[in-house]
Design brief:
The chain has about 240 residues and is mostly helical. It has nine helices and two strands. The chain has a two-stranded antiparallel ribbon with strand order 1-2.
């Protein structure tokens, strides 16, 4: 029982308890895929049953992670897929803090979208934020919660993912020349404009597109749109009445 409450694993050569970052990244990828599917399903069919199950699982999973990640369902699934890869050990303390942040995001979602079903754009945005954090960890090995911990605790983290806690110089292959910087900048601009055009310029003909676009609109924009629709319908009615 005493070992159950010891957070992380003792590994020779590391002076703090650690967790396997490869398992954490795999688990984040699994949760990201499930979360994206549940959110898309909710938008397309306007029903939250799949989302409720996912949020319940997400909340329970992060609660277990904060207590002991060795028994987290998603971490164990991640272990299954990466069990033949060499472990990448990172400090358990900052990962626990990061997962605690995830739990704090999960708890209001669990209340408002599972116990008391009240979907609103801001609650959907919290879900999207969780997906963004999961994507950052799984795809780029960026642990935002670990960075916050390092700021709060004044650089006390050890063995961060990718070795970012240690002061070092970038290798040449990690730097950008002027042409590469230009390509990256243009890519960001094009992706940003494409996202904006999809949400605000494109005429949406599917329920998914219409719902996403409406959720991204401000309250003033929604009122203005409804007013314009009412005036257009009134004008059409008046023209029909002339006959």
């Amino acid at each position: 029982m005493n070992d159950f409450f010891k957070y992380g694993e003792e590994v020779a050569g590391y002076d703090v308890r650690v967790v396997n970052e490869r398992e954490a990244r795999a688990a984040a990828g699994i949760l990201f895929a499930l979360g994206l599917l549940s959110l898309t399903n909710a938008v397309m069919i306007q029903h939250g049953v799949v989302t409720r199950y996912f949020i319940s699982f997400f909340t329970l999973d992060f609660l277990i992670r904060v207590i002991n990640p060795s028994y987290s369902p998603s971490m164990l699934l991640g272990r299954f897929f990466v069990q033949n890869q060499k472990p990448e050990y990172v400090g358990a303390t900052q990962k626990r803090f990061a997962w605690g942040v995830g739990l704090m995001l999960a708890l209001p979602m669990f209340y408002y979208l599972v116990i008391n079903w009240q979907p609103t754009p801001i609650k959907v945005y919290i879900c999207i934020l969780c997906l963004v954090l999961l994507l950052a960890e799984s795809a780029f090995s960026i642990c935002v919660g670990c960075k916050i911990y390092n700021l709060v605790m004044k650089n006390s983290s050890k063995y961060c993912p990718g070795g970012i806690c240690e002061i070092r110089f970038k290798d040449k292959i990690q730097t950008f020349n002027p042409v590469q910087k230009t390509i990256v900048g243009i890519s960001f601009v094009l992706v940003s404009y494409a996202s904006y055009a999809y949400l605000y310029k494109l005429e949406h003909k599917t329920l998914f597109g219409k719902t996403v676009a409406e959720n991204m609109m401000s309250e003033e924009a929604v009122i203005a749109r409804d007013k314009a629709d009412y005036e257009r319908e009134s004008a059409e009615f008046d023209r029909d009445d002339d006959f």
